[in-house]
Write a structure and sequence with these properties.
Layout lengths: L1 H17 L3 H8 L2 E6 L7 E2 L5 E2 L1 H14 L5 E6 L4 H6 L5 E2 L7 H6 L2 E3 L4 E3 L1 E6 L14 E5 L3 H13 L4 E5 L2 H9 L5 E5 H11 L6 E3 L7 E3 L2 E3 L3 H20 L6 H4 L5 H6 L16 H9 L2 H8 L29
Parallel strand pairs: 1-4, 1-5, 9-10, 9-11
Antiparallel strand pairs: 2-3, 6-14, 7-13, 8-11, 8-12
Helix pairs in contact: 3-9, 3-12
Bound molecules: glutathione (GSH).
């Protein structure tokens, strides 16, 4: 009891220390420290040279460009599902961009803020095609590989109990071991975010065409950034970065034309790109911060297509991640 109290006090003290204006810390350091995954193709994974690539990584780059004027001024910290939130609470990282699902409990109990969703996902299943599985109830009695410390571990149990499917979870604390085990044939199915399954099949499967991601999903997995409570200024920057990238897509501002578009006569484009309205300064940033952010990796649509869309090995549809005007959920709050 006494020891628990000391630990809690030390943790609370370190959270307070870490919540001093993150923007100032980042500017003084000259580098953004971004928490990402240890390896999740399409979102954040090191390439053959060890450089992190992916949708989440492009958010880190856009943020560094917007805040520091240089998308390369990022130090990536690879985090597992288990240690990601502690790394943010303790101040080891400035922001977490790591395919992390937003939930009520994570939002209310961790001392963290949940930023706007940058990828709407759902928990899916992958199986070997020759197993002949067509729907989830065909997985009765199946061994299912699942990662520890994720939303999936809990949802798998809940769904099985509610629907009378007695699947047997095989739980892994390391995702690389989970992939090796599944593709080695030890589990009948593997479950995680449907996007992650597409990435795993595209990059880790011995023969991608032998596997199928089932069309059903069993949960909503809204993925987005996390920041610390008590630093509204920094959380606002994370929020408006996402809306800026979506607004850029809606207005046709791209990586290639951002400088040119800054001279546009369209008031909404002028405000977004800092030609009028002084919006950046209200966040403690340069008024043209979003020009720099968009030039780092493009607008939301460009980031999506390059990393996880048709131009990528994952080949995902835009679906819910299309802009609202095209039937999706990506909708930017107006810049005015
Ligand atoms: N979105 C889920 C799952 C996120 C997650 O950690 N997924 C694992 C695979 S199931 C992953 O990306 N692992 C890569 C890594 O650990 O670096 C959550 O927030 O709990």
């Amino acid at each position: 009891m006494y020891r628990g109290l000391i630990t809690a006090t030390v943790l609370a003290a370190s959270i307070t220390g870490a919540s001093a204006a993150t923007l100032d810390t980042v500017k003084q350091r000259g580098t953004l420290v971004c928490g990402v995954s240890t390896g999740f193709a399409g979102f954040s994974a090191p390439d053959s040279q060890g450089n992190f690539k992916g949708l989440d990584v492009d958010y880190c780059r856009a943020l560094a460009a917007g805040v520091l004027g240089d998308p390369t001024k990022v130090r990536y910290v690879a985090l597992t599902a288990q240690n990601r939130f502690t790394a943010l609470q303790s101040g080891e990282i400035d922001v977490l961009y790591r395919n992390s699902t937003q939930t009520y409990l994570r939002g209310t109990t961790l001392g963290l803020r949940q930023g706007p969703v940058n990828f709407y996902d759902g928990q899916g299943f992958v199986v070997k095609k020759d197993l002949g599985v067509k729907e989830l109830k065909d997985l009765k009695g199946a061994t299912v590989c699942v990662a520890q410390g994720t939303t999936h571990e809990v949802t798998l149990g809940d769904y099985g109990r509610a629907n009378g499917i007695d699947w047997k979870p095989l739980v892994f604390d390391r995702v690389d071991t989970m992939y090796q085990t599944f593709f080695g044939g030890r589990c009948d199915a593997m479950t995680q975010d449907a996007s992650a399954l597409a990435g795993a099949v595209a990059t880790a499967a011995p023969k991608a065409e032998d596997y199928v991601v089932l069309p059903q999903t069993i949960s909503k997995e809204p993925l987005g950034p996390f920041t610390r409570n008590g630093d509204e200024g920094w959380s606002d920057i994370i929020t408006w970065l996402h809306y800026g990238l979506v607004e850029a897509e809606e207005l046709g501002v791209t990586q290639a034309n951002a400088d040119e578009m800054a001279k546009s006569q369209v008031p909404a484009i002028q405000r977004l790109l800092g030609a009028s309205g002084d919006l950046g300064s209200r966040l403690g940033l340069d008024n043209k911060w979003l020009v720099a952010a968009i030039k780092a990796g493009g607008n939301y649509g460009e980031i999506f297509e390059r990393n996880v869309g048709k131009a990528s090995p994952l080949k995902l549809e835009r679906g819910l991640n299309a802009t609202w005007s095209k039937g999706g959920l990506m909708y930017a709050i107006p810049f005015k």
